[in-house]
Amino acid sequence: MIVDKIENINLYFELGEKFHIALSYLKKNKFENLKNGRYEIDGEKIYASVMRYQTKPIENGKWESHKKYIDVQFVAEGKEQIGYSNINGMTVIEKYNEDKDIQFLDGRGDFITAEKNTFVILFPQDVHMPGILADNQQNEVIKVVVKVKAE
Question: Which segments in the chain show pLDDT lower than 70?
Answer without folding.
Answer: none
